[in-house]
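PROTEIN DESIGN WORKSHEET
SECTION A - STRUCTURE
LENGTH: 165
TOKENS:
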């Protein structure tokens, strides 16, 4: 399956549902996890095709060849929003990230439903007393998951088009 097909059939429906129901934790996590999975599918596709793009990526930790973690790290270094989303996916998958690598999201509980209050509320978008899904980053900032999902979704679609994947 081409990564663009995976994105269209699996990831995009999850993204749409998360954006329509921005206070639904399950839908936000599904979108986050499948965006992350899209990059895994893309890496595998490019690797099998021996795509020249992969020559831009450096293997970490004295490894001979790159893996999907190196691939995702390449994009995380270029895009802070992708870095937050990737770390949220990893933290959700593992519960808590305890390795030596600095992470923007540490625990699965850093992705949570919260009240939309002053400073977070968007007129015409949020209901008074409403909720949204937030991602707490290591610097204690709260990021609204829906906006992160939407932005990373757009950059992912552009990447898939650029790579013909």
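SECTION B - SEQUENCE
RESIDUE ASSIGNMENT:
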């Amino acid at each position: 399956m081409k990564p663009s097909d995976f994105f269209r059939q699996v990831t995009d429906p999850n993204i749409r549902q998360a954006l329509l129901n921005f206070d639904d934790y399950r839908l936000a996590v599904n979108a986050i996890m499948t965006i992350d999975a899209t990059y895994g599918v893309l890496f595998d596709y490019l690797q099998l095709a021996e795509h020249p793009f992969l020559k831009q990526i450096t293997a970490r930790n004295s490894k001979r060849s790159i893996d999907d973690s190196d691939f995702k790290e390449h994009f995380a270094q270029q895009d802070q929003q992708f870095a937050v989303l990737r770390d949220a996916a990893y933290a959700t998958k593992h519960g808590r990230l305890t390795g030596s690598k600095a992470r923007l999201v540490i625990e699965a509980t850093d992705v949570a439903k919260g009240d939309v209050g002053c400073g977070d509320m968007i007129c015409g978008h949020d209901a008074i007393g409403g909720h949204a899904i937030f991602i707490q980053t290591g610097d204690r900032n709260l990021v609204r998951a829906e906006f992160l999902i939407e932005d990373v979704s757009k950059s992912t679609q552009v990447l898939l088009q650029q790579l013909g994947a």
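SECTION C - NOTES
Residues 25-48 form the longest helix (24 residues).
The chain has a mean pLDDT of 86.
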